[in-house]
Amino acid sequence: MDHFLQREGVLFAEEVSLEEVASCYGTPCYVYSRATLERHFRAFQEALQGQKHLVCYAVKANGNLAVLDILCRMGAGFDVVSIGELERVLAVGAEAGKVIFTGTGKREDEMRRALEVGIRCFSVESESELYKLNAVAKSMGKRAPIALRVNPDVNPQTHPYIATGLKDSKFGIPATRTLEAYRLAKRMDFLEVVGMDCHIGSQLTELDAYREAALRLKHLLEVLAQEGICLRMVDVGGGFGIRYKDEEPFLPCAYASLLESVFGASNDYEMVVEPGRAIVGNAGVLLMRVEVLKQADTLHFAVVDAGMSELIRPALYGAWMDILPVRKREDVEARLWEVVGPICESTDFLGKERSLALKEGDLLAQRSAGAYGFSMSSNYNARPRAAEVMVDKTQHFLVRERETLPKLWEGEHRLP
Ligand code: LLP
What we know:
Elements: E1 4-7, E2 10-13, E3 16-17, H1 18-25, E4 29-33, H2 34-47, E5 53-58, H3 65-73, E6 77-80, H4 83-91, E7 99-101, H5 108-117, E8 121-124, H6 127-140, E9 144-151, E10 173-174, H7 175-186, E11 191-197, H8 207-226, E12 233-235, H9 252-263, E13 270-273, H10 277-280, E14 284-295, E15 300-304, H11 313-317, E16 323-325, E17 335-340, E18 349-356, E19 363-366, E20 387-392, E21 395-400, H12 405-409
Parallel strand pairs: 4-20, 5-6, 5-13, 6-7, 7-8, 8-9, 9-10, 9-11, 11-12, 12-13, 15-17
Antiparallel strand pairs: 1-2, 2-3, 4-14, 14-15, 14-19, 16-19, 17-18, 20-21
The structure holds ligand LLP.
Ligand LLP binds at residues 58, 61, 79, 102, 162, 199, 202-203, 237-240, 274-278, 313, 317, 371-372, 376.
């Protein structure tokens, strides 16, 4: 459930019409709903309340400071994958002790900074990273808390670009080498082995793959315990799917029951989850205006002022994301439109064959754009990045200014 609803033919974010947002801030523009964001985060908190847990929001989905700040105030931890994401969460005053650092190629300076501020755990993805982290920790006279990211080799049934737990994926350590890697880590003086981590993919709507992965982790935990390597934290990753069209994703409480059934409710382990999309995806829309309507041989194109530079998911994954008129029209017939951007690429589409009644100048909203929308946007074709706005009941706030043109070449230099 979210708070983007039609009222008398006009699309609102909470109590604010998107027409008002467009007239205040222009288009293209991302619009987020605070109530939706909070609702989704709370669903995870409540589902897991019977277990020792930490919900670490995956910053990569949407790292806007206002989003991070709202979640931080609600007690969220954070999953970061770079020093940039780490500094973002520190900038909103997040406790470093609630930050997990995941990612497959951490640099030494990133490790150093994370150790300096005292993060909760590094998720280590290779034997080589163990050596590197041990050396960095040694040079700082510290011990680095670590979990090993296990690649459980399960098929998560999602788009191949966002599946991460298959055996030839670049992520994690193959399950077959995990025990050896734990023994190695245990021998390192400047590592503290605290947990096990796993993330099998994104936009998953079936619990089966999660169950399979959880059972593999459980087995590994038991074998390790027999060897005297007792872990206290299990990080089961993120990847919880949302409804873009007609998907029927499972609820956080179903997932929590699965965890309890596999790992027990004994609080032996602190359960960490890293949802990104499920918290912020349906809490945002991309607001845009129709610039040009044109006809090709057989297709009708609606060229809007947003494109793959603002929202790359359709171009990159063939993702289907709903496109709604901000004000419903009765004065023209609906027909099928290819909704495309102004970028010089044939992959620059936001939606194909969308039935819409349109005129030039109309506002459209692309739904479910709160996750991996702005955070994957670019300046391609020298386009300033879009503004971001947060709606909170009857109020709206500019939470990121539209980039200015001079910003585009700030830091560039001509030769003498
Ligand atoms: N934890 C780890 C280790 C991850 O790699 C990811 C996402 C997450 C958590 C959060 O996953 P989520 O709950 O948001 O599905 N750009 C793609 C999604 C890439 C996901 C990358 N990793 C998209 O737009 O669909």
